[in-house]
């Protein structure tokens, strides 16, 4: 239902307490009472979990806040949704939402929410599983096609899968998915309930990037380094789920041809920049969330190389942060932000954010704004929303739409963030 509640956020951002090893339950909010930091100083002031680690280059972590940070106001436009994972803005001011339990709903401009759309396949919603991301096909205006990811129940376990469907909405406020087809399955199947990923991003030529996790557990997470395994990878496929002919490992013995990059942990944020290049943010362990720009065929290190430590405070593997043949993250966080959802800002509502990435924070409970210059993070600012942010989208009017979640209550809200009047 529609709410008229407005909350103006402060000019300065709150910081994350950084004390919880909670990414395994995907984030715990910071303690109340954290103080805003002055302009020009880094937002993050809490000590890192890995106190003996140093960045590989200046500005790789704890970037300063920019000199100009706009004041923002947030308005609840829909509340009490089933706990949700992703959203997409539809024509006529509607919003398509995926609920973790395995349902899709449409939110209408008056705040009303449709019933569950028919035709959604079964999901395994234990732990971090469920119905995950959703994107509109590049030709959605004429085809009404969507693509979505979900943790698919399978013999012997589950895994992240991608399906396409036609979105058929009726005038009565309901609808269905038709012609549902699973086009891609992350393999191998594994009997676990963590680290499914997953974000879906269409490239500038209609290719589909699919990010997935490495399933978390120590007995399998090393497969992030295995080109014959689909765990801990970014995939690049066509709209039928087939590998692109110019993918980096096409024709390589023992390698999956769908792989674009590897050595990833749990990617839940992804977006294209203004030049059509893919950027991602992945969950680290206790510390070590990473911003990367995944390039064809490159190895991003996990679990052999990482910032941060195990949840037990032990080193991850050999405890190293660099190794020949692996890429350094563009930027990392320790303590973590708990990244989920990501959008490039190209609107007019916040000219200060032009070409910045907006990243949702489950742990930091707000938006993380990353100002990029020369493929590095020049500045970082925080917009506190006091809620776990699961997804972020930018509307045609330049306002920012934020999907929040309350796992304890099993509910979600959608906020509209605009410039404070």
TrEMBL record:
The lineage of its organism: Bacteria, Pseudomonadati, Pseudomonadota, Alphaproteobacteria, Hyphomicrobiales. InterPro entries: 6-blade_b-propeller_TolB-like (IPR011042), Glc/Sorbosone_DH (IPR012938), Quinoprot_gluc/sorb_DH_b-prop (IPR011041). Residues 14-71 are annotated as: Disordered. Residues 83-409 form the Glucose/Sorbosone dehydrogenase domain. SUPFAM superfamilies: Soluble quinoprotein glucose dehydrogenase (SSF50952). Residues 43-54 have a biased composition (Polar residues). Pfam families: GSDH (PF07995). This is Glucose dehydrogenase.
């Amino acid at each position: 239902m529609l709410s008229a509640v407005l909350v103006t956020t402060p000019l300065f951002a709150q910081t994350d307490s950084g004390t919880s090893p909670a990414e395994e339950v995907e984030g715990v909010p910071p303690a109340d009472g954290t103080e805003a930091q002055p302009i020009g100083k880094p937002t993050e002031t809490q000590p890192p979990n890995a106190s003996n680690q140093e960045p590989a280059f200046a500005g790789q972590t704890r970037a300063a806040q920019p000199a100009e940070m706009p004041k923002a106001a947030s308005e609840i436009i829909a509340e009490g949704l089933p706990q949700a994972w992703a959203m997409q803005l539809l024509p006529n001011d509607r919003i398509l939402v995926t609920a973790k339990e395995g349902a899709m709903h449409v939110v209408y401009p008056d705040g009303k929410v449709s019933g569950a759309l028919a035709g959604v396949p079964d999901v395994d919603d234990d732990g971090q599983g469920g119905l995950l991301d959703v994107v509109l096909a590049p030709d959605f205006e004429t085809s009404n096609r969507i693509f979505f990811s979900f943790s698919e129940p399978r013999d012997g376990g589950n895994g992240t899968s991608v399906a396409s469907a036609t979105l058929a909405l009726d005038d009565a406020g309901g609808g269905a998915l038709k012609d549902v087809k699973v086009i891609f399955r992350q393999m191998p199947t594994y009997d676990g309930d963590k680290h499914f990923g997953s974000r879906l991003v269409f490239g500038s030529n209609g290719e589909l990037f699919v990010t997935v996790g490495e399933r978390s557990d120590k007995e399998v997470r090393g497969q992030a380094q295995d080109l014959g395994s689909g765990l801990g990878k970014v995939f690049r496929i066509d709209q039928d789920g087939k590998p692109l002919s110019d993918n980096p490992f096409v024709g390589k013995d023992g390698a999956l041809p769908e792989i674009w990059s590897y050595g990833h942990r749990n990617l839940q944020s992804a977006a294209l920049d203004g030049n059509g290049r893919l950027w991602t943010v992945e969950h680290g362990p206790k510390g070590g969330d990473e911003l990367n720009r995944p390039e064809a065929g490159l190895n991003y290190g996990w679990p052999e190389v990482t910032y941060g430590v195990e949840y037990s405070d032990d080193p991850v593997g050999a405890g190293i942060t660099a190794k020949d043949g692996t890429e350094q993250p563009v930027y990392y966080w320790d303590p973590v932000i708990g990244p989920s959802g990501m959008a490039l800002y190209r609107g007019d509502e916040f000219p200060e954010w032009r070409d910045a990435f907006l990243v949702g924070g489950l742990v930091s409970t707000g938006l993380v704004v990353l100002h990029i210059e020369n493929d590095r993070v020049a500045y970082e600012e925080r917009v506190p929303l006091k809620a776990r942010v699961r997804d972020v989208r930018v509307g045609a009017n330049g306002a920012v739409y934020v999907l929040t979640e309350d796992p304890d209550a099993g509910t979600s809200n959608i906020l509209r963030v605009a410039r404070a009047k």
